[in-house]
Amino acid sequence: ESTSTEKRAEIVRWHEDCYAITDALGFCAFTTTALYGLTPKMMAEMWSAAIGEEVSEEELIKAGRRIVTLEKAYNVRCGATRSDDRLPWRIMNEDAEDRPGEDFMANTQKELDKMLDEYYGLHGWDLKSSWPTRKVLEKLDLDFVIEEFEKKNKL
């Protein structure tokens, strides 16, 4: 069901990690997340073979999470907060034109807020502000982000 909230945050998180890895390595996104043909494990094996140095699946996933968190940190630096993580008004309030006669309803704001809480929790980001926490920045070795966030009172 398209409006189901079950496991949605986990699905989004997995796709974010995979897209970040895919983009960083120069693979085609269609073969990874769209067709699920190349898994992170396979990408690690191919990358290891290409560079002649062993890179594990876990290292690639951590790199993907660093990328996603850096992107979020950039948005935070530009002033983004949880209130910016919203669906467009039309999706929340207008009927879907391509489904005439169907009772289609997007998720409610309450459901979206629940999914955001789950999503931020999976990332280790603050639930209220949506900002990456010191703990997750340390875990991802993003000390330079910690320094900048401290200067801007974002931690």
UniProtKB/TrEMBL annotation:
GO terms for molecular function: electron transfer activity; iron-sulfur cluster binding; oxidoreductase activity, acting on the aldehyde or oxo group of donors, iron-sulfur protein as acceptor. InterPro entries: Ald_Fedxn_OxRdtase_dom3, OxRdtase_Ald_Fedxn_C, Tungsten_al_ferr_oxy-like_C, W-dependent_AOR. Residues 4-142 form the Aldehyde ferredoxin oxidoreductase C-terminal domain. PANTHER family: ALDEHYDE FERREDOXIN OXIDOREDUCTASE, TUNGSTEN-CONTAINING ALDEHYDE FERREDOXIN OXIDOREDUCTASE. This is Aldehyde ferredoxin oxidoreductase C-terminal domain-containing protein. It comes from marine sediment metagenome.
